[in-house]
Amino acid sequence: MMRLHSRASTFLRRFARQDSGATAIEFALVSSPLFLLILGLLQVGLYYATQAALDGGTTKTVEALHTSFHTGTSATLPTASALKASLVTNAGGLINNNASLLVEVRQLSALTSGAVAIVDGTTDYGSITSVLVLRAKASVTIFAPGFGSLAFVQSSAIVRRQGT
After folding, report:
1. Which domain holds residue 132?
2. What's the average model confidence in pLDDT over 17-33?
3. Which end of the chain, N or C, is less packed with Cβ atoms under 10 Å?
4. Closest Cα partner for 153 from 83, 82, 48?
């Protein structure tokens, strides 16, 4: 029994003196939080890039609507699918024309409460002098754990319908 005890204590003393694996353990302890921080920063960066792309696409689509309203001839009112296609084209590669992209045009007067859900495909252009709101909602690719609240971005822009 004594011999077994001395072998174990000798092994433990030799193990305690060895430092060849200390660097690997320190690297594992330091790199894990650093990796998670970098992953989180990339996820937040993707969220803001998607938000900027959707804002740009919404603004350019409203500018195209504004131009079509002021041509002096009878304005062609685009369908919901044409609005989606215009928004995706103007937004760049981060916004896809899939089931998660919601686009609508409503009269500003129809948005009476603070939380009106976006109903995909709604095109209420109102009368000739109506103030219109183009609203869009798109999904964001989530690859980092714990960022489910950043799954969607929303954007809106206002234009006045004028002309004939």
Report:
1. 2-160
2. 80
3. N
4. 48
